[in-house]
Amino acid sequence: MSTVPRSSFASTIAQRVVLVVMLLTLWWLASLRMPQFVLPGPLRVAHAFVGLLQSGTFFNDLGITLYRVVGGFLLAAAVGAPLGIALGSNPRVAHFFEPLLSIVNTVSSAIWAVFAIIWFGISNSTTIFVVFMTAMPLILTNVWQGALTVDSNHVELARSFRMSQTQIMRKIFLPTILPHFFAGARLAFGFGWRVSLVAETIGSSNGIGYRLRQAADLVQTDQVFAWTVTLVVLMLALEAGVLKPLERHLFRWKKTD
């Protein structure tokens, strides 16, 4: 397996730094021409972020939102992946349930949030349910499409060698489906973050979404920006520190040019 040259890695880092500096500069210049309550500058947002750190609830809100997103995502993966495999391996079942999946995909996260509040009230279950109902169809659809690409000849050959269903699943289905599952999971996790904020905004008494609504109601725009920057940095950290390393580990068997 080839490795990324150090010069290429250093060049990538330099490009990212230049991009961040450009964005910060444009943000600062734009803030000079607008009222602070409309567009606070980077320095003001940095001060607001320090204030959030000193508030005593910052890490609790961050942790509870992460817990809700991860909980809903894991539940979606546990339900969506097996259902996707079942639909992909049985065309008749897939044809029967396809309209139901289309209906689920057309319902927005805001509507699921309203239903969740009616069913679960103001609780963790509300956000977890909304994340689940948003992420599960994405995972299911991707796994379903991956299962459809499994070569039936390979399955028949495995059965002729009297391989068990578990062995067929592990040695034939899993390597084919895994890239599709991972693509759907990354997309679902990103959407899960976004819809969790919607759910927390209208159906929670803590978490990042609740704090964003609170800051917006009080016209504390600098805190809104501080929470937004926190979310962006956290997502980038999860992408670079968890998702990409996991992807490299899962697909280390692939040959690279």
From TrEMBL:
Query: How does the UniProt record describe the way this protein sits in the membrane?
Result: Multi-pass membrane protein
Its name, as the record gives it, is Nitrate ABC transporter permease
Please name the GO terms of the biological process aspect recorded for this protein, alphabetically.
transmembrane transport
The record's keywords, sorted A to Z, are:
Cell membrane, Membrane, Transmembrane, Transmembrane helix, Transport
State the source organism's domain of life: Bacteria
- Ranges of residues in domain ABC transmembrane type-1: 62-242
Gene3D superfamilies with a match to the protein in the record: MetI-like (1.10.3720.10)
Where does the sequence pass through the membrane?
64-88, 100-122, 128-151, 172-193, 224-243
Keyword Thylakoid included in the entry's annotation:
no
- Major place of localization? membrane
What's in the GO CC field? plasma membrane
> Does the keyword Cell membrane feature in the UniProt annotation?
yes
List localization entries: Cell membrane
UniProt family annotation: Belongs to the binding-protein-dependent transport system permease family.
A Pfam family recorded for this sequence: BPD_transp_1
